[in-house]
Amino acid sequence: MARRAVIIGAGITGSLVAWRLARAGWAVTVVEARHVGAGSSSRTAAGIRQQFSTPETVLGMRYAVDFYRRFREEVGGDSVPIVQNGYLFLYALQEDWDAAKYRVEMQQACGLDEVQALELGALVDRFPWVDRHALLGGTFCPTDGFLRPETVYNEAIAAARRLGATVVQNAPVTGVESTNGRIDAVITPKGRFGADLVIDCTNAWSPRLSRVLGATELPITPRKRYLWMCERAGSLSGDTLAAMPLVIAPSGAYCRPENDASLLMGWAHDAPAEPDFAYEDQDRVEEAFFHKSGPDSYGYATWMALAEVLPPIGEFAGITATTAGYYGVTPDHNPFLGFDPAVPNLMRLVGFSGHGAMFGPFTARVAEALADAGRDVASVDVLDGAAELEAFRIGRRYGHGEKLVI
């Protein structure tokens, strides 16, 4: 009889884990409180990069990029979800630029051969739309880029179904049945689902779910993040916009093309914790962040912060839309990937701090290794090496935090 896995949450993480475990022979049931992609996965900037400051993450994201490039071969569907326009980090302060060049050396040592540190002249030659008077240099990786998230979760859940997985929507978890600390079944309004393994893929919802499951309370803080669409105008051509990398300004404001007519923009702010947010709050836009609130809005400030280093963006016609979603933030901005200390057959894959979409393939690879072992493991094989998992272990010390968070 096949081992039974109940996966809670049907965003990018849950969908890819469901496909991976179904392919490995598990009897998979996915329970989702609303519908596939209802949470943060459908409200993400969906960047994917290998330029991280944690070596384990560099290795994991190299694996993720390779997977997304082979997505049709691995998962199926009609399209590849990754757009490899690259990631460009810009620097204006010497201390930051020196640290960036050091990180590039580390990233190259992790096998990311194509990442480059571009001094000012080379930067302007390659990207003539940056302001040479405002910058010292930039780091660029051409194989980075962004994702089409709806392709990922829709195709992955379809592939899991083809392999025999059951997907139950509008089924929030209301309780569990347990024996000797192990979960025997997950209870929802749509029924009882027996489990040998339960996997929490709820990210920003995980703190409240942990109370239902009797699980360890992990330090995950739900925080709201906003995105804005800005309409192209002025001197920047549609072709140039469509080919732009995802650009991170020295201020932390960032942007990427949505298409040849629209620029997606974002900028993290000092958001309060919202531990009790509702699904509907994902679409609640406070006045200070709403694009129709005028030049005092945070969206307008984001636009101007980008225009300081990307002058053609200052010529754009204006912001046309505002969207919002939640990050599940951890103290060191690294996720938790491992078994719960209090519930031995509960796996936690949560706390991605805004990186869940890009982590998806690596997370699913880790989940398969953990499920096969039935316990935490020290590393997983990815591409040409092994990625150590200590940086993602539940109960770790938060000595090395991920430095590149937007």
Mean pLDDT equals: 96
CATH homologous superfamily designation of the largest domain: FAD/NAD(P)-binding domain
CATH class of the largest domain equals Alpha Beta
* Count of individual domains: 2
Strand tally is 22
What does the largest sheet look like? 8 strands, mixed
How large a portion of the residues is in β-strands, by DSSP E?
A: 25-35%
**Integer-rounded radius of gyration:** 21 Å
Question: Helicity, in percent?
Answer: 25-40%
Structure classification = alpha+beta
Based on the coordinates given, report the CATH architecture of the largest domain. 3-Layer(bba) Sandwich
For the biggest β-sheet, the strand order reads: 6-7-5-15-16-17-14-18
Count of helix runs: 10
Gap from first CA to last CA: 45 Å
| CATH topology type of the largest domain | FAD/NAD(P)-binding domain
Your description of this structure?
With 406 residues, the chain is an alpha+beta fold. It folds into two domains: 4-76 and 148-220 and 331-392, FAD/NAD(P)-binding domain, CATH 3.50.50; 83-145 and 221-329, 2-Layer Sandwich (D-Amino Acid Oxidase, Chain A, domain 2), CATH 3.30.9.10. It has helices spanning 12-23, 55-69, 71-74, 94-109, 120-126, 149-162, 206-213, 238-243, 298-307, 356-373, and strands at residues 4-8, 27-31, 47-48, 82-83, 87-91, 116-119, 137-141, 145-147, 166-168, 175-179, 182-188, 191-194, 197-200, 221-231, 246-248, 254-257, 262-266, 318-329, 336-339, 346-350, 379-382, 385-388. The strands form five sheets. The protein has an eight-stranded mixed beta sheet. A six-stranded mixed beta sheet has the order 9-2-1-13-20-19, covered by helices on one side. It is globular and about 65 Å long. The relative contact order is 0.19. The model has no long low-confidence stretch (mean pLDDT 96).
